[in-house]
What we know:
The protein is built from 16 helices and 20 strands. The protein is α/β, with parallel strands linked by helices.
Amino acid sequence: MLILQDMRKINIIGSGFSSLSAACHLAKRGYQVEVFEKNSSLGGRARQFHKDGFTFDMGPSWYWMPDVFERFFASFGKQVSDYYELERLNPGYQVVFGKDEVFPVHDSIEKIADRFELEEKGSGRKLVSFLNQAKRNYDVAIDDLVYKPGVSPLELITPVTIKNTGLFLTNVRKQVERDFKSPKLRSILQFPVLFLGAKPEQTPAFYNFMNYADFGLGTWHPKGGMIQIVNAMVSLAKELGVCFHTDAAVDEIITNNKKATGIRVRDKIHEADIIISGADYHHTESLLQASLRGYSEAYWKKKVFAPSSLLFYMGIDKKLDNLAHHNLFFDVDFDQHASSIYDTPEWPKEPLFYVNLPSISDQTMAPEGKEACFILIPIAPGLDDTQELRDKYYDIVLFRMEKLTNQSIRKHVLFNRSFCVLDFVNDYNSYKGNAYGMANTLTQTAFLRPKLKSKKVKDLYFTGQLTVPGPGVPPALISGNIVADMIAPI
Length: 490
């Protein structure tokens, strides 16, 4: 077996956003960094699928919290605009509640408040007040909380959080339902916490800062798709001297006297002083001897995971009407679908779904006169995944899309590729095929999440959506920053 040796070196497993963030920060601080990606392209779940002139973001498709991206690049004396072009979408997205019942979420709080007022008298004023609180929470989260390493409960105790203890003791649903009576408005205000991977009634009300991220900071689109963020971070990393390996699945984490000393990729051992994994936490620990794993199988089985997803990537031979770049189909019962994910895991009888049409805003995503479309149905992780089930739900969502938007779609589909639980497992080693990581419930937040630093192996660290701060692209950037600060404090 060939042994590649190097000193003062960090090997990073996986090339998702958290890994790329950690790689950049640590390379800047003088470490020699190598990144090992199991797939043929960099970016982890933020890959793209290309076919016949159509381009699809296969993973993340929402660009929220633009300030976090700016902060990341500013750490290196750069700006987002040095790498890619951003457009604020208007509407940011729209919610389809039924035929001819569409609620657009526009690009300013004033416009959104006016639209709320049309739905429920007095709700516009209440929304502004609600968002003022959400902004305060957002500022606290960004300035005082989310960049903390999750080591101690004391991290949560600041003069500001003490004053707002009640927001950790109640939940998003109770807070929303106290102020808003319209079922439509309630659904819209509870939607953003789904990015945290949990039901609104299981999510502390403090997380209403996601509503400010939504309405206040807006929904953006990087021209060319979310892969542009990956390309930007890889470009920056290479400028800083980071070396990348693709088609390089890690088969084992090498240890000596309970210290991480390297990784094995096929027949080669790549030695390092420190190992970081941005891959699935559960999978990473399976690369260790059983006695060195920090968390048992029983631990993982008890945890609440964010949903998996059934996705369809479709090329359509015409432009679609009555739809926006981002579309949420909430024409069926929100709670019933959520229950099928979190309470009694099963395939939903009447699924909510999300439709992404990037070619509405970005002509580079599809040939002229055609539409790139991907559809996402959130489902419980670990469900049976068969072609028969995929076909069944393809029929369900296309039927409802056609009916609710008053147009034919199915006969215009040029091709359809699906992606579901088994693909998340095979492509990303994802625990139970989850799509977003571990949910941010009250008992799975901050210091109660899996640790960034291995409890049993020295110089082994973790980053990404199963640890702090949680699911989502901006939190992934932050997670990489946090683990870099743990290893090499500024």
